[in-house]
Amino acid sequence: MKVTIELSLYPLKENYTQIIIEFIKCLRRYNDIKVYSTAMSTYVIGDYEQTMKIVTDELKKVYVLIPDSSTVMKIIPKDLNIENGYLEF
Predict the structure, then answer these.
(1) CA nearest neighbour of 54 among 36, 32, 83
(2) What residue ranges define each of the domains in the chain, with the CATH number in brackets?
(3) Is the dihedral of CA 27, 28, 30, 33 positive or negative?
């Protein structure tokens, strides 16, 4: 099953921008998922089990460094075709 995860990471500290950029760069190192970023959130698309593991592992790295963080996540059990900028119904 494919999954699309929309992530918004909020490190609760000053100078948070670089932390978010590094998190996104880490996600983009994986060949088995697609990662798309906007000014407000990042979308991760791939196989459900593998994508969930990657997101969980990478978020854990952030939380170890910055325990005062918040993450908003939406999980949709299909590929939402984010790369084309629209949804097909």
Answers:
(1) 32
(2) 2-79 (3.30.70.930)
(3) positive
